[in-house]
Amino acid sequence: MTLSNSGALPLLFALAAASVSSIEARAELQGNARLSGSVGVDSNARRDFQQVGAQVDGVLSAVGSGQARWLLPWSLLSGSYDLGVRKFLTLSAEDFLVQSATLGASIPIVKLFDVGVEGWGKDRRGGPRGYTDLVGAGFLELAPTSALTIRVRGAFHRFIYHPFFPYSFSAGEGSGRLQYRIDRYHSLSLFGDLSFRSYNAIADSDPNGPPPERPVQRSDRVTIGGLSYRYGGPVLVSVGYTYGDFSSNSFGQTAHRHRLAASAGVRLPWKWTLLAEGVLQFTTYPDKIFAAPQILLIDDENLNSISLKLARPLSSDLDLELQYAFYHASLPGPDATYRYVRMVGGIGLTWRLW
User: Fold this and answer.
1) Which CATH topology does 8-352 take?
2) What is the pLDDT of residues 3-33, one digit of tens each?
3) In angstroms, rounded to a whole number, what is the distance separating the alpha carbons of residues 179 and 182?
4) What is the pLDDT of residues 221-247, one digit of tens each?
5) Whole-number CA gyration radius for the chain
6) Phi and psi at residue 50, to the nearest 5°
7) Which residue in 261, 221, 258, 228 sits closest to 243, CA to CA?
8) Where are the domains of the chain?
9) In a 3-state reduction of DSSP, which class is residue 104?
């Protein structure tokens, strides 16, 4: 299924809901949906690294999302769909539409084991950074005790970068997750991911070294591992550390990254809720150059960032939200260091449909 067919998942939900009435004694359909809209300001609407070209612009955003779980006696089916639109007031070339969807199914084999399949996709169109990202996977989940869950997964990953096809890749991937709940408030998670990526490009050779005897296809090995802690008491707190090794046979694409992330949620007076998140990354590039600064901007999670969100209910199904985010990155280049700074702020409403 491609994400351009935006009606497929809502149709699936409708068919599932229609089927429940005939077996409602044995199955249960759960779900929720919401619609958000906001108006704000973007300090670097073009998302330029060199601040000479940065331009402030107003931006209108809208996001619709829905999730559903169908609990059957023999399995669990789940799915979600999100649609987001961003419209700039003057820089119309930066407007974009993004869709994402997930589908999954799991079947308990014995009391301790679940096996299943899952699919994930995201498609962004418009602006200079359009892409399609697709993942299909199978997994095995083991819960030897009520406090411990172990999950292993194998997947195939296809990424297509529309502005420059050589940055597209196919990959075989494997991952493992271990989650341990210490008590009702505290939990720990340990994870590791391994990906072997084959790009639609020829590897760049070291300009200071001998030329290669023949062209070689670019291939990367991506290894990521990390540990996180979560506290779920009166204040929600999560902290985590991740190490990523991005090894490439293409000059300028190898990197080693340390990532620290922390988030918190707390209730304030007058029914306000504050959500805060901070990310700090230390990245080294052995080749002393990063050959593709624009590819880093596909997702904001690749950047140092601070984000704040204040929310207050106006009614039982309508919330007022105030948001602010700061993003930063620096990359080595052939002549100087590329620096990226961006601030985004806005005010909006979220309507919980059901």
Assistant:
1) Porin (2.40.160)
2) 344 444 443 344 344 444 444 445 788 899 9
3) 10
4) 999 999 999 999 889 999 999 999 999
5) 22
6) -80, 120
7) 258
8) 8-352
9) strand
